[in-house]
Specification:
It is built from 13 helices and 15 strands. By secondary structure, it is α/β, with parallel strands linked by helices. It folds into 2 domains: about 5-165 and about 380-395, NAD(P)-binding Rossmann-like Domain (Rossmann fold, 3-Layer(aba) Sandwich), CATH 3.40.50.720; about 165-200 and about 245-365 and about 400-435, Dihydrodipicolinate Reductase, domain 2 (2-Layer Sandwich), CATH 3.30.360. The strands form 2 sheets. The chain has a 9-stranded mixed β-sheet with strand order 13-12-11-7-10-9-8-14-15. A 6-stranded parallel β-sheet has the order 3-2-1-4-5-6, sandwiched between helices. α9 runs antiparallel to α12 (about 395-410).
């Protein structure tokens, strides 16, 4: 699905020129470019129209100032509901062809496809000056997150990562920034993935199966190395395969770690260490415990972030009555904050904080972003006006990089000492293989 050399050169030399000309004007660093005046509708294209793509499409299309002008999906059967719901939208299997043929008709793009093709699709759209909403995790590799941030800055586009759960952390962020639990030294985060959601800890299939008539297998593979079709890879179960997905970390990490990132101003861990079982070359482990260490940041003290998945739990001594399967505990020197994925926040010790009215707090992650507009609507509004969003790539790319470094530590098999400036593990050269995604011949960002 990422561009081959011939098509990429065509886009760069022809369509790209038109897209860049459309930008117009001079823009300050970090300033977003609006596509429409407040009274004009936004012409929106979706890359991925089945599964999560269909859910995203239902949200964006409900905005009264949106026109759905194009839908792109590699599987006619999975996308049939969306295709029928929007008969006037132009249909494509190859997003490269969509951008090339009708790029001038598109203002913004939603990317809702498997992880390994996120960055190639998003970068292609941003390069043509299109605003982008991209599902979490933003990319499959650390290097891709850097490229996505660089591209979004260069072309001054409005961006949003699809992590609706980020909003569930707003009350906790306000509490922690207020200092009510003192200096936070640790955050413990747990998820119930992948257990019962998709298989991991398994070997790569050795047999080929007939490709379903409705599926374009080559375009589904996109940048991934070629292989015979097997139903063990899709749909949804692709999450457990390293070549396509990013495991439990990629599925839930950007949701659950976004709160700690915002509340504690985290960025660029200095080390990452992972326990897991099993450690296999093709699929993620059945469980993992990952520890990131963050150095002192200005007045902020060092922080240790610990992740548990696959049935591993936050130790009872952290919070004895911790009940959620997806949530976090912030440990301060004066108290603790618990956040559930379902937006239930509690302060500990309960007696000490019994008079704090947590439910009354409704604060935004970014000044100027209305709390009540919702994750999709605020991005659409920003595309039309140039305003901010909650999870712009300025925030989401470093967050995604940290999440993906957890997978690098799993695959490298030992603790990583991370040099963010040089984008390398200084003590672990074997980690280099997992910092970059290895595209099949003819594909590149």
């Amino acid at each position: 699905m990422a561009m081959d050399v011939t098509r990429r050169e065509l886009l760069r030399n022809a369509s790209l020129a038109a897209g860049l000309t459309a930008l117009g004007g001079v823009w300050s660093e970090g300033e977003a470019r609006a596509s429409r005046s407040p009274n004009e509708k936004l012409n929106l294209a979706h890359i991925g129209a089945g599964g999560q793509g269909a859910a995203d499409l239902n949200q964006t299309s409900s905005h009264p100032q949106v026109n759905i002008v194009a839908l792109c999906d590699v599987d006619d059967a999975r996308a049939s509901y969306s295709f029928e719901k929007f008969p006037a939208a132009k249909k494509f299997k190859d997003y490269r062809k969509m951008l090339e043929e009708i790029g001038k008709e598109i203002d913004a793009v939603v990317v809702s496809i498997p992880d390994h093709n996120h960055a190639p699709a998003a970068v292609a759209a941003m390069t043509l000056g299109k605003h982008v909403y991209c599902q979490k995790p933003l990319a499959h590799s650390v290097e891709e997150t850097r490229k996505m941030l660089e591209t979004s800055r260069k072309h001054k586009v409005v961006t949003q990562m699809g992590t609706q759960a980020h909003r569930t952390y707003f009350p906790a962020v306000e509490l922690i920034k207020s200092g009510i639990i003192g200096v936070v030294s640790e955050v413990h985060t747990v998820t119930d993935r992948p257990s019962g959601w998709w298989p991991q800890g398994i070997a790569k299939p050795t047999t080929a199966e007939p490709v379903p008539a409705t599926l374009d297998w080559d375009h589904w593979l996109g940048v991934a190395q070629d292989r015979p079709y097997n139903s063990a890879y899709l749909p949804f179960v692709w999450r457990g395969w390293w070549d396509f997905g990013t495991g439990a970390m990629g599925d839930m990490g950007c949701h659950l770690i976004s709160g700690p990132f915002q509340a504690l101003d985290l960025r660029d861990p200095i080390s990452i260490e992972a326990e897991c079982d099993p450690r296999l070359p093709d699929s993620g482990p059945n469980w993992s415990i990952i520890t990131w260490q963050f150095a002192k940041r200005g007045k902020r003290e060092p922080v240790k972030l610990i992740w548990y998945d696959g049935g591993k739990k936050i130790p009872a001594e952290i919070i004895e009555d911790f009940k959620t399967d997806n949530g976090s505990v912030f440990v301060g020197d004066k108290g603790k904050v618990m956040v559930d994925h379902g937006n239930v926040t509690a302060l500990y010790p309960k007696v000490k904080y019994r008079d704090v009215k947590i439910g009354d707090m409704k604060v935004g992650a970014v000044p100027g972003v209305p709390y009540d507009r919702g994750h999709y609507y605020q991005w659409i509004d920003a595309c039309r006006t140039g305003g901010p969003t909650d999870t712009t790539f300025e925030f989401a790319c470093p967050l995604t990089e940290t999440v993906l470094l957890g997978n690098v530590a799993i695959r490298a098999g030992r603790k990583i000492d991370w040099d963010a400036r040089k984008m390398r593990a200084t003590n672990c050269p074997e980690a280099d293989a997992y910092i970059r995604y290895h595209y099949r011949g003819g594909h590149r960002l």
